[in-house]
């Protein structure tokens, strides 16, 4: 049963730990082990402090052969899990700062990806509509495009057929189309158009199919992090942060020794020899808490988007698998796709979960009739019950608890990004990385420096000069992080809005009816109908408020009531 639960928890993660970190069954912290771990950590720090910062970084990343550069425009990028896309409408997307539109051609059921810019007067094609013949029509003046090659097939304001034919034959009327493919449940794009893009992409595999460890079962979760590519990837290569950032704290604000597995200093963390190259690298590391201290893990980075982790226990048995994908959408924003598979009970991420208390049980008994009524409503009165259920599983508890982990990561990553922007210094000067636990961050930064130009290469015209500072509300926003990208969540949110309106309307009619029954009932000494109608009106108002709470879960992590 735990295995099934673990799988469900993992696949329901719409925003999940960027670490692949495992947190085990809470156990009482062993003071002796903790002290010796602290001493070991201190010694290790002292030993490493003796080396220069630059040398420390070099230790973890062997020098690369000169001239081996990663080309940011010659790689497949994940755009969306296919299940997140709207199959009936154009989907607005972005990668490397390029604005894209993807739609499903109804004639052949193939996804098409075009630049989100109409060649006529540059209106967004994502405002348009998919036609029955498989073309995408621009909403501004009705030009229509073949999604396969971007060619213009219709210009409605042409004076005659010959003029239309001439204009459609001009390369200037052609929309820009990009190579795309569906693999491992994801729509991928190759961000170079034309013959060059077609040729280069044809023989290139997507990162997930390159993974020697194979693909993972279950559904992808996906969020768009409000932080840049580098801080997002650093967080991924820094697994031990989970022991503090995602730990539980007691009322005094101290690490709760009973609720956390207890950290253990990492002694093993290095780049596998000979793996650092333009297309990525492999890091290997041990455990970092008392539950996973015996594991040996490998993280395979396939540039620029994939980190595939495999954790083995001390006996060499599978412990935890994680597949995480990243795609830089624009400066300061990054897509993150997640899939986790826990092979053992102690590998289940416990942070964010909480024990079911007797009060919870009583509460669930009291709310059981309302829950059944809600389920009945979803099954019988919504446009697409299956899709609404998927959306509810992403956006409301327990699935939405994954947002809490994401919030913790985002607040830390955003802080790092803003401070690095302020300091405006090379990472080796801004960061002090004296412990083996920092080797993953060094490895990633070294790969960026040696092979990828030190930063993301954005599409022409995209300037990375905007401040990365975002308000807390923007950092904790859920709508732009996930909901607007997910057709299931958008459908669920829309249906909840309808339900709220219906609850409010029902309460108005019931109140009016109750008043009428009270007046007429008084004449016949009949009070019961009026009382029942008034009670139902009150229940409808309570229901409307509950539905408002549910909608808020899809919009923000900032509490709806009280201090934001
Ligand atoms: S801008 Fe697209 S048809 Fe005019
Ligand atoms: Fe969703």
Helix fraction bin: 25-40%
SS summary, helix count: 16
Structural class: alpha+beta
Mean pLDDT: 86
Q: Under the CATH scheme, which class of the largest domain?
A: Alpha Beta
Can you walk through the features of this model?
The N terminus is likely disordered. 38% of the residues lie in helices and 17% in strands. The protein has 16 helices and 18 strands. It has 3 domains: 261 residues, Naphthalene 1,2-dioxygenase Alpha Subunit, Chain A, domain 1, CATH 3.90.380; 126 residues, 3-layer Sandwich (Rieske Iron-sulfur Protein); 104 residues, no CATH class. The protein is flat, with a radius of gyration of 27 Å. The strands form 4 sheets. Strands 12-18-17-16-15-14-13 form a 7-stranded antiparallel beta sheet. It has a 4-stranded antiparallel beta sheet with strand order 2-3-4-9. The protein has a 4-stranded antiparallel beta sheet with strand order 5-6-7-8. The longest helix has 38 residues. The structure holds FE2/S2 (inorganic) cluster and fe (ii) ion. The site of fe (ii) ion (FE2) has 7 residues, from α10 and α15.
């Amino acid at each position: 049963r735990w295995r099934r639960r673990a799988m469900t928890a993992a696949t329901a993660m719409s925003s999940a730990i960027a670490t692949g970190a495992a947190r085990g069954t809470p156990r009482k912290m062993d003071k002796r082990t903790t002290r010796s771990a602290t001493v070991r950590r201190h010694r290790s720090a002292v030993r490493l402090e003796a080396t220069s910062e630059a040398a420390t970084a070099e230790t973890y990343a062997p020098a690369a052969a000169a001239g081996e550069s990663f080309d940011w425009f010659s790689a497949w990028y994940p755009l969306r899990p296919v299940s997140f896309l709207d199959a009936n409408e154009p989907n607005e997307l972005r990668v490397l700062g390029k604005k894209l539109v993807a739609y499903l051609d109804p004639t052949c059921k193939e996804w098409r990806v075009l630049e989100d810019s109409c060649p006529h007067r540059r209106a967004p094609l994502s405002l348009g509509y998919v036609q029955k013949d498989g073309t995408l029509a621009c909403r501004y003046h009705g030009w229509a495009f073949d999604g396969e090659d971007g060619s213009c097939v219709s210009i409605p304001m042409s004076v005659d057929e010959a003029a239309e034919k001439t204009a459609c034959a001009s390369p200037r009327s052609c929309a820009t189309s990009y190579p795309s493919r569906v693999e491992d449940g994801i729509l991928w794009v190759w961000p170079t158009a034309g013959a060059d893009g077609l040729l280069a992409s044809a023989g290139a595999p997507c990162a997930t199919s390159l993974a020697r460890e194979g693909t993972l079962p279950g559904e992808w979760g996906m969020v768009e992090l409000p932080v840049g590519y580098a801080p997002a990837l650093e967080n991924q290569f820094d697994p031990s942060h989970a022991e503090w950032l995602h730990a539980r704290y007691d009322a005094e604000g101290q690490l709760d020794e009973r609720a956390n597995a207890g950290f253990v200093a990492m002694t093993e963390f290095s780049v596998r020899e000979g793996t650092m190259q333009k297309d990525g690298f492999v890091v290997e590391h041990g455990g970092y808490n008392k539950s996973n201290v015996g594991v040996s893990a490998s993280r395979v980075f396939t540039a620029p988007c994939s980190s595939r982790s495999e954790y083995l226990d001390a006996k060499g048995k599978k412990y935890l698998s994680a597949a995480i994908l990243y795609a830089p959408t624009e400066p300061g924003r990054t897509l993150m796709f997640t899939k986790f598979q826990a092979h053992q009970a102690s590998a289940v991420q416990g942070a964010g979960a909480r024990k079911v208390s007797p009060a919870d049980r009583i509460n669930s008994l009291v709310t059981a009739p309302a829950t059944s009524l809600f389920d009945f409503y979803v099954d019988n009165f919504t446009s697409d019950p299956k899709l609404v259920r998927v959306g509810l599983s992403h956006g409301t508890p327990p699935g939405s608890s994954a947002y809490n982990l994401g919030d913790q990561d985002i607040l830390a990553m955003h802080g790092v990004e803003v401070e690095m922007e302020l300091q405006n210094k090379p990472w080796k000067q801004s960061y002090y990385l004296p412990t083996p636990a920092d080797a993953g961050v060094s490895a990633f930064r070294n790969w960026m420096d040696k092979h990828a130009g030190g930063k993301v290469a954005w599409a022409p015209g995209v300037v990375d000069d905007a401040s990365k500072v975002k308000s807390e509300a923007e950092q904790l926003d859920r709508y732009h992080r996930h909901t607007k990208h997910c057709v299931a969540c958008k459908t669920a949110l829309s249906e909840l809005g309808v339900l709220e309106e219906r609850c409010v309307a029902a309460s108005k009619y019931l109140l009016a009816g109750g008043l009428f029954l009270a007046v007429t009932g008084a004449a016949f000494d009949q009070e019961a109908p009026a009382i029942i109608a008034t009670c139902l009106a009150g229940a409808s108002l309570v229901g409307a408020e509950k539905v408002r709470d549910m909608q808020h879960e899809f919009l923000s992590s900032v509490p709806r009531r009280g201090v934001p």
